[in-house]
Design brief:
Arc Repressor Mutant, subunit A, elongated, 4 helices
Length: 85
């Protein structure tokens, strides 16, 4: 009977992970709708994949300040969407 608690805890943990994954996928899908492709790429690389802006700039053949502006614009759109939800 001691294992019953562990099994329940494991099941709850697995369900939370699945729910988090679903939410993440829905957010990514919504971001694809909200953002221009360039904005989506910057957000994906810099925020989701945690690649520094300087490296993202090199990858996308842009300046770091340009990446910063694109990211700021994208985050503003996401924030506006989140506040409206």
């Amino acid at each position: 009977m001691e294992n019953d608690g562990k099994i329940i805890d494991s099941t709850i943990y697995d369900n939370v992970l699945i729910e988090d994954e679903i939410i993440d996928r829905l957010m990514i899908s919504k971001c694809k709708e909200l953002l221009e492709i360039e904005e989506f790429n910057v957000v994906t690389l810099n925020i989701i994949q945690d690649i520094p802006q300087k490296e993202v700039a090199k990858m996308l053949n842009k300046s770091q300040s340009s990446i910063s502006k694109i990211k700021k614009k994208a985050l503003k759109k996401i924030k506006k969407f989140m506040e409206g939800s």
